[in-house]
Amino acid sequence: MSRLQLITKDARQSGRKLLIPYLVAGDPNKVVTIDIMHDLVKKGADILELGIPFSDPSSDGEIIQKSIERSLKKGTSLQDTLDIVAEFRKLNQQTPVVLMGYLNPVEIMGPDNFVRKAKEVGVDGVLMVDMPPAEADVIHQMLKDSNIDSIFLVAPTTREGRVKTILKMTSGYVYYVSLKGVTGASITDDQEVERNVSALRALTELPIVVGFGVKDGSSAKKMSRVSDGVIVGTALVKCIARLSTQNKIDKGDIEKCTAIIGLIREELDSDNAPNSNFKEHE
Fold it and tell me: Which domains, and CATH codes, for the chain?
């Protein structure tokens, strides 16, 4: 059983909502990224999504795009991202790490080389935003053989036939995009999210987490009530942006930066019900 399966099973049994922060590898620098990752776990993160810097982040809003730009200016590569995971694993062998990004850096490294290195450093899942399921057979099988979960996005505009194709290849969790647009926008139709997540539940036993538009404790609580957890990206990356302007970063600065995740954890736990929305396996 993978780390992702273990953490989601534990969440299902305890009724705990999954909290998954997203940050960009190498922003403000590689060492501080590792420190932030550890502090996010202390603040209550269940899973970490680590963004791979790429020069054309078409699905991301301005705040995350700027974070990626800052990281690229420091020269952060896919190999550096993998090295960050390796360093994180020296002190943390429990928290799942999912790499999220675009296909181009993986193709440059070579899918087989990437998967081998990802397994070696302790990556638990991979989400390539621009990798269509119809073209993912080869790398999906490589990941599966290495016990690394393949995670895909399901959007409000995704047709049912395509959703079924996506779900056949998805493991770990389903990433439901709460809105039409890029990261950083606001959720405008809670009822639509609820309807679409309910439709997904009829098709999969995997946990369904909601991302895009989760900005604070209030929006996180709303989305967690109709799902199994939330992904928080832009709100955290916005805090990290403040660190990038500092010449010296200490532990206190990092704790202030990750405070938003601690507040969201408190909100999720205050709304925690004994029953879970996960479907039990037959």
Answer: 3-269 (3.20.20.70)
